[in-house]
Amino acid sequence: MAEVLQSLEALGGADLAIEVSAPVHVQKLDKFGRAYATGKRKDAVARVWIRPGTGKITVNDRDIEVYFARPVLRLMINQPFQAAAREGQYDVVCTVAGGGLSGQAGAVRHGLSKALTYYEPELRGPLKKGGFLTRDSRVVERKKYGRAKARRSFQFSKR
């Protein structure tokens, strides 16, 4: 803004051009050509690295079929690839800690989606539309004193 406005009347007559642009997302790779992201779900935290490859997914140094034996969990992890139409194009290496298998699968899916957007920023639209980039913030409610669990009361009997 080159000119300095001295009064409100001058502000009303001034021609103010405000430039608004969408944020520019750039590719973020490490020195090995991999994209890294962290995914979280419940108490589980997943560190995910992706690079172009044949579609091999490794979780904690084990194959995905061995680590996630339930087909539903494997299907859940592959959802970002299906939404982005990139099945079988990336090798995934991830380490997961904390929580149970369902939470870990959700954490891997979240981290995988973020890593895909770091590798290919143009995939952000379809992944955001599918809801894969939003961290599911639901966690277990803490136990309260005077209660059997978070909300359940102890059994009551008069006699």
TrEMBL record:
PANTHER family the record matches: RIBOSOMAL PROTEIN S9 (PTHR21569), SMALL RIBOSOMAL SUBUNIT PROTEIN US9M (PTHR21569:SF1)
Q: Which Gene3D superfamilies match?
A: 3.30.230.10
Gene behind this chain? rpsI
> What top-level branch of life does the organism fall under?
Bacteria
Q: Write the record's keywords in alphabetical order, separated by commas.
A: Ribonucleoprotein, Ribosomal protein
Q: Which family does it belong to?
A: Belongs to the universal ribosomal protein uS9 family.
This protein's species is: Xanthobacter agilis
Q: Does the keyword Ribonucleoprotein apply?
A: yes
GO cellular component terms? ribosome
Record's protein name: Small ribosomal subunit protein uS9
Top-down, what is the taxonomic lineage of the species of origin? Bacteria, Pseudomonadati, Pseudomonadota, Alphaproteobacteria, Hyphomicrobiales
